Amino acid sequence: MPDDVMTVDAVVVGAGPAGSAAALELARAGRDVVLVERGVFPGAKNVYGGVVYGRVLDEVVPQWWTEVPVQRWVTRRATMLMTPTQALTIDYRSDAWDRPPYNGMTTYRADFDSWLAGKAVAAGARLVTSTVATSLLRDPAGRIAGVRTDRPGGDIHAKVVIACDGANSFLAKEAGLLPRTDSAHTTLGVKETLALPREVIEDRFGLTGDQGLDIEMVGCTSGIPGGGFLYTCLDTVSVGVVVGLDGLAASKTRPEELIGILKAHPAIAPYLRGAELKEYSAHLIPEGGYRAMPRLATDGMLVAGDAAFMCLAAGLWLEGVNFAIGAGLAAGRTAAEAIAAGDTSAAGLAGYRRRLEANFVLSDHKRLRNAADIVLADRMQQEYPGLACDFVEQIFTVTNPKPKLGMAREFFRAVRLNKVRWRHLARDGWQAMRAFR
Amino acid sequence: MSYPDVSFDERMSTVEFRVGERAHITVDSDVCRSCTTKDCVHACPAALFVPTTDGGILFNYDQCFECGTCYQVCNREGAITWTYPDGGDGVVFRRG
Question: At A171, which helix (H) or strand (E)?
């Protein structure tokens, strides 16, 4: 980067999915855009929990599935409710997910994020890696006017800053959009990527060719609000847990011990027999959803992706990369229009939120705004997996010569056995119906 | 729950770190001495926080995931000063 002052139309901070999508749209609109990334390559700092839902990539490149760096196409999707000795799995597979446009894919973020950043570069964005945006620049009137980087003479002046700087977004914090900490709405994900031969993965998980499996789990985190996950890549299996920061701190349990407990579970251990650890990783996840989101636009700046709490952690749906891409595209388009119109104030950038409300990003988040609370509630974590497992166990246990009790009485028994209160069950059931309607 | 797992050192040796010269996180042990919970010690996925006999905290930034868990769970203002490593330094995830 030259030592003289650098002035561009827009600077995008963070070459993750949100940042690369934003830079892509600005470049497509003919704008001079710099994409700043602190890692040695895009994706070097990024970790995800299993599936990238690619349909939003239709707006990036037609027939993206022919070139995206996919590991496996998810054709088998399971949700597992667990107690230390039991597992109730809802396991779904479909041929429809095994052909274009597919549904979900597994990938390595080093590959996926680099590929997406490459699309922005091909469209004309300038990618600057190994560079940290350390603070915001402001004009004499106090509005955001660029970023300072850790390169000598590395100030970048811009009409718009798009902060896609991830779960810790220090730029959104500096702009006063996010609190310094928000441990109640943030989870920690820890993951092990384990090597297994390709044929072994296919045999163990019932997969053929480049088909993949994703399992999401509840009740496997020693009572700490959170969950577990397992997904397959070509010749690795990744397994990990996601736990609320406050619960983790209170538990005095170490994160990798929670992975160890999950790996030792009788329903999981056989899947991983003989697997060798290739990489251990950890990352924060902003899970607060709609109600924890910051203001998305301020004078001279937009926020997208994890920096704007756009991970959807709503039980059945655990998505983030797609939301980041959707928001990044909208941010890039809005910024390009605002620059063309000569108004990059908060009012000039207000179209960003309108765009997100009109597409899936804020519609889904708004619809599912109460779901995270329900999924992470103590009873959902500590009582209901046991209730469900015991109910199913009783139904499937043949107790001859005693006759069958019948579904209703078996359910009553499971409720009593798990010390679940009926009024809690009724209230939680009602709230869950409302939250997921 | 006995699972033949790798040692913590082996676990961390699977991760690539480009260690910078600047300590991107610093800990003010004087502040930590007044902390009774020391949540950072257990919560840090890289186990970089070690309690000392005098009630302080010893911190090593070399193998940091840059996740942010420590400052999020820290309940003592000013105990942990957290910045990103310089550009290009720090963790490099290959299979994140």
Answer: helix A170-174
